Amino acid sequence: MDTRPLLTVVLPTYNAAAVLAGCLESLVAKNDGWLEILLMDGGSKDETLSIASSFSNRVPRLRVVSEPDEGIYHAMNKGVDLATGEWLYFLGADDRWTDAGRIAGLLLEAGDSTDIVQINARKGEDERYTRSMSRGRMLAGEEFNHQTIFYRSSFVGSLRFSRDYPLAADQLFNLELVVKQAARVSHVPEILVHYANTGLSAQQKDTRWIADKDAWIGRMFPPDEVARRRKWRPRERWVKRIVRILAGGKASRIAVHWVQDRLYGGGAAAGNHRQTLGR
């Protein structure tokens, strides 16, 4: 009998006592053994570890590793090395799921033809329209929050987060998977996570990633697609401004995305397989 968990959540922490209980509470709801939680702690000095241990009777597969690390992506890489779940997910201690049971259902529904399952998120009190990951949208420079992404472990394989980018390594990770490895992405337009956007990456910019991002896009995509990017990037700002004015209100965001897809070849034209995983 296969006792492998459906999902491993890698949860990096450091002095997270003020927010950790709420995060773990949202994860363990409706847990019947399908969930593994790896709490990768950087050596907290507050009550983080005692709060985590208080959940051990509710999550048989809760494992706490507390030791000095070299940043969030080092902690996340160590978690990936220990993970046993069919799927991988990375969450901040100040983030919350809205419906753990629904997430389990989506992952169970995802067939072998799906490498990444994406959900929508809410930042603070505002709904966030999470665009489906595709080659075209990454060519346009779009970035995607790791709180909205579930990765099939076998698809990730030996890939790990680059230590060169202390605040944005997940963006290169996604480029590698979606563009270089041609991930098949299923986008589920349901808000199933609230993220606080209070972490270090929300307060600071990864200047090295900003400097290197265009070069990485140039390496990942074939020359003709890179040429299309060079053509449209200088014009995109003005095209988006005109579309926002014409569409107005909430519709302007959807209209801008539609136009951007046409410019860069996103959506179905990107060649990614996306299935509907609705109720």
Characterization of the model:
This protein has 279 residues and is an alpha/beta fold. The C terminus is likely disordered. It has eleven helices and nine strands. The longest helix is centred in the C-terminal third of the chain and has 25 residues. Helix 7 runs parallel beside helix 9 and helix 10 packs antiparallel against helix 11. Strands 1, 2, 3, 4, 5, 6, 7, 8 and 9 form a nine-stranded mixed sheet that branches.
List keywords for this structure.
279 residues, 11 helices, single chain, alpha/beta, 9 strands
Summarize it.
The protein is an alpha/beta fold and 279 residues long. The chain has helices at 17-28, 48-53, 72-82, 100-109, 135-139, 153-156, 169-180, 200-203, 207-220, 223-247, 251-264; strands at residues 7-13, 35-41, 62-66, 87-90, 96-97, 116-123, 126-128, 149-152, 185-195.
Rg (C-alpha, Å): 19 Å
Terminal Cα separation, in Å? 29 Å
Approximate shape: globular
The percent range for helix content is 40-55%
Blueprint (SSEs and pairs):
Layout: E1 7-13, H1 17-28, E2 35-41, H2 48-53, E3 62-66, H3 72-82, E4 87-90, E5 96-97, H4 100-109, E6 116-123, E7 126-128, H5 135-139, E8 149-152, H6 153-156, H7 169-180, E9 185-195, H8 200-203, H9 207-220, H10 223-247, H11 251-264
Helix pairs in contact: 7-9, 10-11
